[in-house]
Amino acid sequence: MSEVQLRVEDARQRDVYRGIARIDQQTMQKLGISAGDVIEIVGKRNTAAIAWPAYSEDQNREIIRIDGFTRKNAGVAMHELVLIRPAKVTNATTVVLAPIDMKLNVDEDFTNFVKNRLMERTFVEGDTTLVMMLGHAIPFRVTKSRPHGRLAPHHLRGYRRSPRGAPADSRDG
Q: I want to staple 54 with a disulfide (CB 3.0 to 4.6 A). Which of 8, 24, 135, 165 is the partner?
């Protein structure tokens, strides 16, 4: 399996909360991937993101642009090096999310809303993900999933919210 080492740079504002990683065309060719494919990002921790084309001024710079949540999920900081490779992805059948540092009362409409928001995202158990609601980003931790591993919830059949919130610093590593 091919892999490439890239230097982490910040995502542009328009890409924040989208779960994407902007990488250049040369890197995509080396990895044998195209826009929309899922990549694994290996820092101190493994996470996943959706590969997206780099901006023209970033071509051939050997960088990856990811937002703060993706950096946190990978356990890396700005300007650090990460390893990226094509991800082996499994469609999730069940995902359990816990809101971070808050309690939420949920009903079926809320559950369906969150489920629909996650349909185009990819993540790993232990990741933090955001759901935009009424202009506010609500953070959730992926506490359990079925099956385990890198998940693409494009065909998510089950969603449950954990009965209690997750503290901000609790992470499976």
A: 24
